[in-house]
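Entry, Tuesday afternoon. Goal for today is a structural model of the target with flavin-adenine dinucleotide bound, before we commit to ordering more compound. Inputs were pasted exactly as handed over by J.K., no edits. I checked the ligand SMILES twice against the vendor sheet because last time a stereocentre got dropped in transcription.
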Amino acid sequence: MNGRPAFLTDGDLGLRPAADGVSPWLREALAEEGEPMPAPPFSGSSSADVAIVGGGYTGLWTALNLAERDPSLRVVVFEAHTCGWGPSGRNGGFVNGWWDELATLRQLFGDTAALACAREVAGSVHAIGAWAEREGADIDYRRAGMLTVSTTPLHDGVWAASVTAARELGLAEAFRELSAADVADRCRSPRFRGGALMADGATVHPGRLTRALRRACLSRGVAVHEGTSVRRLMRHEGSVRLRTDSAAGSGELRAGRAILAINAWAAGWPGLRGRVLPWSSWMVRTEPIPELVRDRLGWTGGESIVDGRFSVHYLHVTSDGRIAFGAGGGRPGYDGRIGRSFSDDLAAGRRAATGFRHLFPDLADVRLTDMWGGPIDVSGNHLPQLGTLAGGRVHFAIGYSGNGVAPSHLAGRILAALALDADDPITRLPIVGMRAKRFPPEPLLYIGARILREAMIRREDGEEAGLRPAWWLRELTRLPRRLGYHLGPW
Ligand SMILES: Cc1cc2nc3c(=O)[nH]c(=O)nc-3n(C[C@H](O)[C@H](O)[C@H](O)COP(=O)(O)OP(=O)(O)OC[C@H]3O[C@@H](n4cnc5c(N)ncnc54)[C@H](O)[C@@H]3O)c2cc1C
């Protein structure tokens, strides 16, 4: 290999993440809006009915739900940077249901509750598109299903348990197996083998979705403060006090309820530590190549695609004919900190580029133009956790584990209902108040996660090359499962 990573072109090797950490999605969406000024930072003292920390999908859907349920409510959103600066403006654009998680959901919650959860998330897949249409927002919503494909004989059938579960629960069409020929009809790659199709899958332009949500919130009277970090939450005489910092100075807001919608940042938040592990996910994007996508890959149906790795590759075609390609095998963060490695990690970015080159050798002449990364919030059972902290006035939704676009829409409805003490059936879904197995304390967590990450990558890279993992590598990568986490390969 003479020191050069396999498959990468000279152009790939020259590619760098943007220095300001802003993803191309958000950059494009801001340019389309005419580079608006950020919303004013917060300082001084004030009060509100509900204060929301975090201006990503979770925070904005919650704010929108609250404002629509009761227009008289004073709702305030605090965002440390710009709305969508976090993963909501950086993600892979997959809006997918949970039918591919059905076997796990059944095991954890039983048939009835598993179905209730999967139906609600499928409802969100549809509702996001319907909302954008009502709102007149162009978010590039395209509902064409999600393909899970195998790229090595060792991953054949990774979908089998959930396909069986869907069939047994009378929803065979929700997640059904495809032959290798069916997969090739949808997208040609010399690596793709068989697969499975989930009908409830769509794609969006992540930047446009966040900005559309932000506009919708502002138009309903939600107060948004960007460039404002919430440093502390305190309970005080029947209310919550939020201490903030911004360029305008420090501030204090008294609110009846507070919502923590801070994704991977929750790993460092008192009361939520140990519930999620921050991990980086990295993406690259090609130049626009609509003709090549059609002629060389025959990928014209708009399906999003994931492979069978735990350090998953995820890809879709954008409305301007680019391939957006992600790789989940980034790195863990230490002690709940979201440091520079989440936005400036060339090695992790190049893993995504290598994945793209590996799956599509027929596109060797295509340029990659963008590279970026961000944190995901891995929870012990790979599912989001919603709940209420001691005292009953602070609600949270975290732990999407890199699959938050559709579930954050559901979370917004649930959090709004919790904040209003509304007797809504969705607040009784088992993901509300669920206690996933906690992660061990630092430095054990970081050391263990780094070792397991190296082992997992080694195992899955080997499997992709057709190599059966050595027994010790298989045993090591199964350790999270043996310890009771729903994480990692079997
Ligand atoms: C590279 C990448 C690809 C992904 N691809 C997909 C995909 O294709 N499909 C999918 O379903 N999911 C995907 N995800 C995950 C998905 O993006 C998230 O689950 C989802 O965006 C979570 O939304 P959120 O609002 O909870 O969090 P975020 O979007 O992270 O928003 C949280 C916000 O809180 C702010 N914040 C944190 N602490 C504070 C504080 N103290 N004060 C004020 N503000 C604060 C942050 O700045 C951030 O903007 C991906 C994630 C990444 C990183």
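The chain has 14 helices and 19 strands.
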